[in-house]
Amino acid sequence: MLDGEGHKVTIIDTDSYSFRRLPSSFQGTALLGNGLSQASLQKAGIKDADVFIAVTQGDNRNVMASQIAKHIFNVPKVICRIYDPIREEMYHSLGLETISPTRVGAKLIREIIGR
Fold this sequence. Notes:
Blueprint: E1 10-13, E2 29-32, H1 38-43, E3 51-54, H2 59-72, E4 77-81, H3 85-93, E5 97-99, H4 101-113
């Protein structure tokens, strides 16, 4: 969506197979690498990034990558997806911008059933 809105988007993944899901209209950059690696992040252009978003399948990796982006590379806006709502709340209280799809989904379900 961000790419479609004209933002410059770079995606890093350790498995090139993940890139198969990118739409043919994707104009950004897809790099094979590890988002915890400072070298990979630098290759992706993190020094010029306005926003960094960590959305791997692992909460620990997302937190680590977010901390690297925020504290080592001083990215102005860092967003971290954390599935575990308790951990998400804790990291949010420590200053990370976090989102928990588990919590968001639970709220939507509650709204649908009317409670």
